Structures
1.
Amino acid sequence: MLDRMKRVFEIPGIDFAEARWEHFRVNKIHLRNREKMAYESENLSGNVRVLVNGNWVFVSFCGLNIGNIEDRVQGAIKTAKSLRNGYRKVARSNTAKEELRYSVKRGLENVSMTEKMQLLLEYNSILVDDLKERSDITYSDHIIERQYCNSEDTEITEETNQISLTIVAIAKEGIDVEESRDYIAVRDFACIEQLSRWTQEIGLRARKQLGAKGLKRDMYSVILDPSLASCVVHEAVGHMSEADEVLSKTTYRDLIAPNRKIGIEQLNVVDDGTIHELVSSCKYDDEGVRTDKTYIIKGGYVSSCLQSRETAAESNTKLTGNARALDCRFPPLVRMWTTYIEPNDWTIEEMIRSTQRGIYAKTKREGRLGSNARFTVWAQEGFLIQHGEIRERIKGVVISEDVLKCLSSIEAIASDLTFFSDPCGKYDQFPLICTRGSPHLKLETASVGT
Amino acid sequence: MDKYLLLAEASRKATESEIRIVNEYEEKLSLTEDNRTSIKVSCSNGVCLRVIKKKRMGFSSCGNLDSSLVEKAYFSSRYGPKANFSFPRGCMSDVEVYDKKKHDLQELVEKGDEMREVMDRARSVSYVILIQKKLLCISLLNTNGLDCTYKKSTYGAVVWAGVSDNSCGIYNVGWSCFLNRIDFPLLVESALDKITTAQKRCKVHGVTSAIFSPGAVQTLLYILFKVINHGGKSKDRGTVKRNNRVANEQFSLYDDGTLAFAPGSSPIDDEGISTQRTALVEKGIVGGFIYDLKTAYDTGSRPTGNGFGGLLSMPTTLPTNLVIGLGDMSIDEMLRDMRAGVIIDGANIRGQNAIGDFLISFDCGFRVENGEIAGRLESGVAYANIYELLSDIRGVGNELFQADRGLRVSLLTPLVYFGSLNVLDGSMQP
């Protein structure tokens, strides 16, 4: 298949070309309260992307019997040549020839649907039978074979697994209802086998939040647990450092200007595609560029942005290997791999003791960055802190703050770096698995509540 | 493998079987002010097999008519949900969704160039124009005698225009099953009008009156549907049932899969039930629900022609075209009544919980002062409860607009004016 697609590279007048081919087998299981459903799906997909006269042509297919791919590409190129000349260009990279495989304790090939179902029914039983809650459990796994090649003579093959599990628990007491949720994405099925405690924590979190008081919006000192702190890092720093966003938004460009002082000296924010034990990593990105460890913020100063071939060429800077596509139906965009804050030496106990009036916000519910460089995160759990001690539970813990103000308000960074894998969306490409990481963070002051 | 052979093979193993074959062809053209053009062409095939075995449902899918589908669907039925229903013989409603006139990529380019010319006249406006075409051919057959095929075409245009430093963006969308029914010049001209209005930066914080534009209303409906589907919580936090009040009497909502030229319409759903118009909310009271075969069976109701699946996924209950009933207020009357408040123009859901509390972000909004638009709000966040918000409708517009950026479900809605909305972050220092 790839050889057929590569013939397109020989069409005259092409500045750069690449082709991808992907075969995937998917198992999906959905449990909702006592109802269950499981099914299997399989398909073949691929694409060809060509830069011609400074404009992109992207042709994708999904399934067999899709006709002659060369003809479709030729037709699209003909139309592209009739357009005004564009200004798109790409940075060049080294040629690579690689076959990538990942070692896991338990690959998906050795796990039957029956075993998967049995395991998930056990988790479901923890919520429905033990905690008397409503449940919504969504499991999916992908066995993926990929091939990539480009006009720089790069050829990469990859065999990988991707397993994701979302658990939602809904607790009810009288008229009060609380929902708690969490998500995990891994390559190794062995990691899915030991989640009873995690499931129970999700269920208990929903139960404990019942009856919590709402929080009036005000300025507070805030301690963010690693789940929420890493969400701030992903939303506020990660998205803002994606070079396509930086190039198109003046607000971001001003904020993420190189060597700008943006936080305390201990603040280091990294995006890293090379942490191979995490599902959101790969030796090469989806443009055949080697991934790297990139410091976005170093010593409190802005260091680098995340680049694709196109943004690196436009801003005349070095490639970082951050072009990722959701699957073969989509062209690559600048995306994060694993974005995290490096740990420092505080403990959570020291942070709480040092807080006179504040909020301890735990577990991400949702987060986003606005185009005006303000971000919002919504916590699933919250606690009031008074005179250095944790007091009652609160809900409606929504933190909305200016990115720069937030980063410069970081007062303390703990040592307990923890990673979370999450689906991330950009334009129409959702859900792409990214990992976010952080230790506990303490913000001197932030706007919290509803 | 032939589809009839596959069905015959499936029927040897299962009590009932159904095959859905989907062929999709899509072209997308994206144009920008700085000549960053891209052309996307995609073609996709999917074959979905659904079986009922021992009164349980099984499912499998792949990219072609493969005999292994039968074994996989049969195996899946062991874990499938109860299915005490039969696949229907089917009957297609008569709805115009296919434009027989061919419109090639070059014609989309010409439409795009015309729009670009208008946008280029306004200097220093950054913009993205997206024009897309989708052709769909669906074949559906089952062991109870259904054997039908229909074609559908959908065309859409989106204009995104950035204000000054791109910190605020304005969306305009248009869609139709027939290309020539989209008013391309109107989309760009009205985007430019909005940009003129949005030049001055304003700030808002706290509880204020709010007018929701079509894009923002779309987000509210998504929240409402999700809450109702998630176990059905209403304002009194009991299960939402027929005749429950979920909004005040100014709000009516219909699902209509039979609207001519609308992207969500089709002669038949993906399970073989003809599409129809269903009253969901009438004057604030729940009038009915939409169902697929399974949910209709589970609730003792009749299916409403709302069972739709993706290329490789099983049918589930989905809306077709959502239509909000017209009111009698013009935008000027809303502004005069409001005196001060905000207009939310396009919003995204940023989280919600089981009882309908939600957080939305908006790409762009407008500040209203003294009954007039005073300037723009940039990228803010609002927090509310869907039932409380819908109970606080002060007015509904007297003109229908199109919403939705995709080509699957469409929304026709007037502007909706709410008494109060809690804006957490809609501020930018002037």
Note: Chain B touches chain A through 68 residues (CB under 8 Å).
2.
Amino acid sequence: MSQTKNPMIGYGLLFAGVALLPLLGAYPIFVMKVMCYALFACAFNLLIGFTGLLSFGHAAFLGAAAYGAGHALKVWGLPVPLGLAFGVAAAALTGLVFGALAIRRSGIYFSMITLALSQMLFFFFLQAQFTGGEDGLQAVPRGHLLGLNLENDQLLYYLVLAIFVGAFWLIYRIVHSPFGQVLTSIRENEARATSLGYDVARFKLVAFVLSAALAGLAGATKTLVLGFATLTDAIWTTSGLVILMTLVGGMGTMIGPIVGALVIIALENKIGDAGKLLADLTGVQWFMGLGESVSLVTGLIFILCVLAFRRGIVGEIGHLLEKRRSGS
Amino acid sequence: MTEIFGIPLPALLGQLLLGLVNGSFYAMLSLGLAVIFGMLNIINFAHGALYMMGAFLAWMGLEYLGLNYWVMLLLAPLVVGALGVLIERLLLQWLYKLDHLYGLLLTFGITLVTEGIFRSFYGVSGQPYAVPEALQGATNLGFMILPNYRAWVVVASIVVCLAVWALIEKTSLGATLRAGTENPKLVQAFGINVPRMITLTYAGGVALAAFAGVLAAPILQVTALMGSNLIIVVFAVVVIGGMGSILGSILTGLGLGVVEGLTKVFYPEASNTVVFVVMAIVLLVRPAGLFGKEK
């Protein structure tokens, strides 16, 4: 990462551009959905990219907050900020319990434990009454904020953008704080961080809870936007999806997860069309079913990324720029 | 009729047997995971997908080629083992010098592709597979009715698991394998082809998963997703048992199957989650796992 230029200008331009998108004819719901997943991936990246912990259970926090916020908004009729806050609190609490258990083992065991715990929560959501089981929690009202009716997509768009920018700023501050530096040192050399006197387990747990809470903010906002929370939010494939987004965009970069989320969501939306096109071109009927088995394509991207493309899109671009600079 | 805690004895024993059947699958899969992890330092997420493939191969063999259960019980592990050789040579071998997590991610990708392929052809509904003729019916033991096929699954799994244990702990081939796990460089210096040993270990591990898949085909529905539901439980089993000991893996797998079966009798709502709860408790009490060594 270059330290010479102020990255704030770049981020400012990026978000200003996103603010203009609905005026340029972009479909607001789609962009809001991308922003929610981008925030989810940024929260996940805080762990994998900056602390070196691979959580394979982040869907648990997305799901806990999605159901939590949905229940608070629909059943209790809480105002929007409180509903979102309740969702975040539910995710943070889940993160505290899961984190306290998972950090007792490191490396690959950590990933397996987070995956197993999130599967446990999935079965809980499947059986519990308040989640609506297989049907999910439907028709969550958007409500009002400061007298403004959020049923209006445009208004909600700017609220979601504000939430996203606020959370992104928070993540930026965390990563670039002394606390973030300690996290990076744990990623680079855990034994050394311990020997320097840092309570590594505690730092890991705080990072885990922060990441869970931010993932929860993404889940709560997603419920507000789409008006429903379902088991898809909490299932293990969603944990895999957020890993893929972060990997494709670039682990350990600030905007990589955003790029990755955009690429993967767009791909999921377009893959059925691509399948139809391929079926028309080649005459092979099998391609028609491609939209139904997205996992085939996401799996191939996973394999490709791990073998040849580990820096991700943003990471590769940064690497090229660095090489050119040092070369000239 | 005899009752224990208000549960009729035959029902209790029936669930216990079903628990042992599930436990046999946990044991065979966690054993394979442990052996592969020992040699390759990779947690093979694809283990569940390859187990599913074993079950599907059994079904396809009968459906398309008319090959019966017994032929496929032998053939499916060979086919999946050969696929394992390909996976290891083409994909996994590039990852050994990298962080463990890339191995998990790559095999996760393989899982998604495999499941996607089977889903695109067969959808998500289950394919029925009949119990082979010789094992149909049940035996009346006096105190319970024992379904022959379930008894066969438990016996066959335990025999195979013990055979693997004997192979690794009691033969010279196993000694080389264990030495390779401890110090591959030194073993290589003795003139042993370590890369080939790694390839064969992976192939053997996934063949074991395919064998379990064929055993499962007549009991469970053969679906594209049958493996991923299982592999997550097996991960919990591996965390509980620790991957240090072969016999430990087998015992933990069988034991947790029994615990799950008993939960189904006394508190069915928790039967899906009980293994994860046990994992949480073990993490609190003995973080390294029941048979693991503290580092």
Note: The longest strand of chain A covers residues 144-145.
3.
Amino acid sequence: MPSDSADSVGEFIQGESEPSSSWVVLAFGLVLSLATLILHGMLFPGRDLPVISDILPVFDGVFDSGIWFFILGVMMGVFAIIATMMTEATSE
Amino acid sequence: MGDVVTSMAFFWGLMLLSYFLMQNGMWILNDVVKSMCRFALGKALGPAIDFVEGREGSASKTWMMQGMFWLILASLFTFEGLWLAYDANALHSLSSWGYNPTSDSLLYAAGFAALYGGVGMLIIACSFHIIPKLADTELASEKNGTLVSYLWTLSVLFLVIAAHNSEILGVNIFLIATALHGLAFLAVLINLLLTASERKSALPLPGWLIMLGMLADPVSVVATVLGGIGSGAVQWLLAHLVSGTFFFATLAGISLYVSSSATGNPLWSRSLTAVTTVGAIATITPMGYSHGRMAADMLLVSFEEVSMQSTDGIAVAFLMALAVIPVMSLVANVMMTLRGGDAFVENPDSAGVPEINLGISMLLPLAVASLFIQSDALSHNPELTGMSSTLVLMVIWLVLVPLSLGSAQHLFPSVTGRNLLSANRSRWAFWMMGWGAFFGLTITMMADIAQIEAAADSTGIMSGEVRVVGAILFYGAAVGAIMHTLNALSGLYRGTPVSEGRATSTSIARDDYSLTTPTSVRKILAGGAHLDTTVVPVGESDDPGAPTDLH
């Protein structure tokens, strides 16, 4: 990838094959998250953020802490690694 | 003479003996011992050895990938441990499966996973590549190196289980873990010693740092067992000897090699390298836990609180203060080598170099902070004990992990023949991991200080709320570890082959460059100039200087 002053910041924050406007999605996601947090604070003052069991009652008593959002995120990452391993090994 | 001083005397004596034997061999027994070791590494293992490949670099590659996988687990355990310090019942739903983790058990398990799984495996991966290169030979047994990596992983798995529950169905899990770990370590050591014995020329100092660091691990175990491992002070000493040799000395050698190899600059100072080598062996590093629980558990002796005699206390304080000298030498040497005369001109975006910069920048402040914490912990009325476990986490995630991971990433193309899949993803992962660990642990330390100040429990509003913020920020380290692993894994299959070369990009670009003094084209390029940069000579005058006229 050649170095070019006009695109240098773009190169820094983009993956090789990402569309150049993908940063809009990232920025939009960040703004949306902050807006949701503020809205929750206004609508339900003093209440904790909802956890998975609040959204999906079937998991009541299981995923009843915010830590599970993060653990599920790591599990998705681990599955992504396993999937990458399998697809890379079998792609040819 | 106290137990600690006796153990140190044994340690120094045994290290001198090991160095002498490495230099001079074992006289008439040389050939016999070498043949027996070769047999032990290969044919003695029977058909098992044929299950793995013996191509050049395969051992290093296997250790590297498994080390990265362990970093994911280590970061997850650390995150959970930090979170449970805020909400002890967050994982209560797992109790129905018989798993009842606490913050302490998770952080203890994270210590094993990060130190022996992540950092340890990456150190050995780099050593398997660097020692043959410096000795101008090949690794004694690639097949054994590859096979033993799985044994090591199994031992770390048992250590992690034992950290949660040391006895299952009446079986001591630490016993199994220690046996497997000892066997794997012995095989690695024999492999490296055989490789070094075949050296075609004198081994450079970074090579000696690695070899002595590896040798010092079993030597320190023998020395402390002879000195009386039942004492809490000796258990503490063993933990710090292993920390200062297997982790610090080997990483110092690896960092020095990589800093030179990544930039194309020669090592800045040979004398400082020698100071680091001697200092790492002659002193006691303050970096590490303020107790010897890990050492006691791994050696299957009952854990004792640290209690030192006055002679031992004075000797330990003196040797810990001296340990700052090798740290300073290493930091100065690596930084100046990285900077060089034409910084990064060879490859400004070389993967791993940012991690090494981070690790080496954090080394000195954290070593000095550890000195204060350890001195306090060994005093009669310790006041800073509440901060010690967070400081150890900082040493692990801001020094040991960046240095080992950065080195492994830099060596990845030489080992596998392919580059990492994406330099950009590498940068993203670095920022996620570096800042996640830095901010997460800094905020956790703020909570520790608040707790010490308030002398209240962690469920208090101040420290409790701050702790959860620290845990969430540390989650970046887990995401960074996953991104690094994905990048390396895909690079194994689809990374640009090294033989084809790889264009690199940089975010630093300059449209004009002011030339004040005569200089080389290399230095101009190192300053961020490219082919279209305008070089502007700045005018000079030989007129004598005078005060600036303001009117």
Note: Chain A touches chain B at residues 1-5, 8-9, 11-16, 61-67, 70-71, 73-74, 77-78, 80-81, 84-85, 88-89, 91 (CB under 8 Å).
